[in-house]
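Researcher: Let's do a round of design. I'm pasting the structure tokens now; please hold your answer until I've finished.
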């Protein structure tokens, strides 16, 4: 594992909490928008997932489509358990 240098512009917990309080509604709205798009796309996933956790893989295929992520990214990451080691 590679760990980068700590950023000198780090925030205190108080600063972080203040910023999060100001932004949490927009963050939540973005998550709900992504979930809405994913659920709308779910019925369009007709491929049979090859992962052992097929329902999760199918959901992820819908996420890839809904958010315009590269096709097959989940399967590639899931099929290589040593990828980040």
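Researcher: That's everything. Go ahead.
Model: Designed sequence:
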């Amino acid at each position: 594992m590679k760990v980068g240098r700590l950023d000198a512009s780090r925030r205190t917990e108080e600063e972080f909490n203040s910023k999060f309080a100001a932004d949490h509604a927009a963050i939540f709205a973005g998550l709900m928008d992504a979930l809405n798009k994913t659920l709308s796309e779910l019925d369009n996933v007709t491929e049979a997932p090859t992962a052992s956790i097929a329902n999760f893989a199918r959901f992820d295929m819908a996420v890839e489509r809904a958010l315009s992520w590269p096709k097959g990214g989940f399967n590639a990451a899931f099929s290589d358990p040593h990828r980040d080691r």
